[in-house]
Amino acid sequence: MSIEFTPTEMMTIAAARALTNDDVCFVGIGAPSAACNVARLTHAPDITLIYESGTIGTKPDVLPLSIGDGELCDTALCTVSVPEMFRYWLQGGRITTGFLGGAQIDRFANLNTTVVGDYDKPNVRLPGGGGAPEIASNCGQIYITMALNKRGFVDHLDFITSMGHGEGGNHRARLGMKTKGPTRVITDLCIFEPDAVTRELTVVSIHPGVIRATIEENCGWPVLFAETVTETPAPTTVEISVLRDINARTKKAHEAA
Amino acid sequence: MARICTLSEAIEENVRDGDSIAMEGFTHLIPYAAGHEIIRQDRKELFLIRMTPDLIYDQLIGVGAARGMKFSWGGNPGVGSLHRFRDAVENQWPRPLEIEEHSHAAMANAYEAGAANLPFAMLRGYIGADLAKVNPNIKSITCPFTGEVLAAVPSIRPDVSIIHAQRADRKGNVLIEGISGVQKEAVLAAKRSIVTVEEIVDELNPPSPNAVVLPTWAVSSVVHVPGGAFPSYAHGYYPRSNAFYIAWDRIARDRDSFTAWIKEHVRGGKPEDFARHVGKRSAKAA
């Protein structure tokens, strides 16, 4: 039996599947938060979700609008101060996986959420880095999820808010970083992973119904495909109903207050 | 000893033109009522400090009260842009805004260093990040023991810090519950401080010996302002108004609608207006 799903639903579910029960995951707001909670409500019930507001082991019933909604604190194992969160837990090396989104990404999975244009005279002033610069360097590995389009996937970033693989190759190691950096980028059309040597993002899996030309048309650089490209399994009925239920609960809750 | 007084007196006594000011609260317990009182008292040339400027600083920037801002994430959480902040940076309206931009980790460390009476904070941060190229206050320091190069930023020492909390007792001891952010550090790092609270009670009765408590002698002024954190929230009292955060996008997108909103709700308002938000208890808090 095949079920209908949107590209965004496929993206969230593919992102959720990247997570395991053993992960201690530092969760970014928006798409990463949806993916992390779908994972928790399906195949990874014991995953530890951490939000930068200080909430550790949180199990929200509705997705938070902000990184510090009361729901996160109400359902957490404990809540620590923000300095403790960044010093002991993130910098302390206790987080296995950071889950980030971004406004723009380049082929080495560097992210820009700061400015489009010149920093001092920006065309568009974006919110900035928040926790991302140190999440990107201090978590064991990084997953990124964002929709694939030419506005987001660009040939050149005006500003590197958080470093992925920098200029590629062993750039992270050259800067003394011992963490893996971005290991997977999950979009609404396909999944990228960095090449083992060059670290350039390479398509390893294509979502059902998507053709290579569509991926190429929506990416700002010439896309590399891995030697073996698989088809992403379609969402299961359980995955899709969990996602739709939490989205419906969330919409109702956010419109209420 | 903290002085228990009105909001108007507390701002009058503690916030001066030209001050550096930190109004903290990480999504939770944001001292909105105090922000409105600063606008009503027409404070000028403020240097704003806050990890997430949020709507409270969008309002102060939009009325032209700020000469500069130190921050680490300037968006409307989950909604989009802070339009007044963007207008100031992109178009210098209503005046240019000098910005000093950091990461959350650096700001949190800098508050902690300020509270610890240290001149700077160090962290394993900004590796490969462009902020270090555009912010001259991000420097590096070499560990004298291992040789590791770490990021260094100046500690945050505000002239005045303002926070909101759940409760104080009649002596002015303050209890903070829930997501406590960097509020304790912000108060202890500042020369002067104001805490607005939901309730003033006879006995503080902290729920645990490890509760987050600011003793009265560490605070300048305590003010009873029920609802004073709306549209953010007060854990145990009222939920975050996510609907207002969504509505702010439309109010603040346009200069005229923003100015009209400030005129009606801030300049024409008073601290007691916030109390009407207290009734909206969340299911979890009730």
UniProtKB/TrEMBL annotation, chain A:
It comes from the Bacteria. GO terms for molecular function: CoA-transferase activity. Signal peptide: none annotated. Keywords: Transferase. The keyword Transferase applies. Pfam families: CoA_trans. Coiled coil: none annotated. This is Glutaconate CoA-transferase subunit B. It comes from Phyllobacterium bourgognense.
TrEMBL record, chain B:
Keywords: Transferase. Pfam families: CoA_trans (PF01144). One of its GO terms (molecular function) is CoA-transferase activity. Signal peptide: none annotated. This is Glutaconate CoA-transferase subunit A. It comes from Phyllobacterium bourgognense. The lineage of its organism: Bacteria, Pseudomonadati, Pseudomonadota, Alphaproteobacteria, Hyphomicrobiales.
